[in-house]
Write a structure and sequence with these properties.
Helix content: over 70%
Distance between the termini: 92 Å
Order of helices and strands: HHHHHHHHHH
Strand content: under 5%
Number of helices: 10
Shape: elongated
Radius of gyration: 33 Å
Amino acid sequence: MKKIDKIIDGRKILLTLIMLMAALPLSAQSTNPNGLNLPGLSVNFGQGVDLVDTIKVLVLFTLLTVAPAIIILTTCFTRIVVVLGFMRQALGTQNLPPNQLLIGLAVFLSIFVMQPTGEAIYQKAILPYLDKKITTTEAIDEITLDMRAFMSKQVRKTDIGLFYDVTGKAAPNTIEEVPIHFLIPAFIISELKTAFQIGFLLYIPFLILDMVVASVLMAMGMMMLPPVVISLPFKLLLFVLVDGWQLVTGSILRSFN
């Protein structure tokens, strides 16, 4: 009987709630004779909007979308992050340091290396543009010149010549005459080549250590034991004793001089 009474009480409560919900619209209509009006929302983009202005806005948003990729590929970030990745693989520490830490270190090292170029861009392009002394086109041209000056110091002539050989065009006499769409990919290839060269040099001492450990294990008849498990503590000890992170960071920074 108690269960039946609980079910009946529950049904009464449910019916009461339904009646209250049904009475809400009626009460709203009684207070507002015109019915329940919802607030409206109108968006006005202005009158006389030209198609050219719309295209300019579209181009601006497109540039903002690809801006991170442009910044990464036209600065020293590529070389630094690749070298740090090689360093982690040479140590054999799997995911230590984590990717977030390596990328953060690469970002701050890139800021350190690009500081002179950034100051030049700020003084010659951004500051005059904010003071309305130069136009947007002039500011972009000045930024391009400063970035070209940095990339021209690091790019190899053979990498630039690759794109002229593919297109069949005559190579210019000076690097200042190289178009920006030739200079950027040539700069990326040069950065990757330099990063792989540094990575090869980083691998040599750790490779020698692995070979020594493997030879000792084979001489002891412990062929089933992976040499990497034994050599990892010795790699970490060697890396700490020679202050490896300072040496790697110094080598990366000096490679841009």
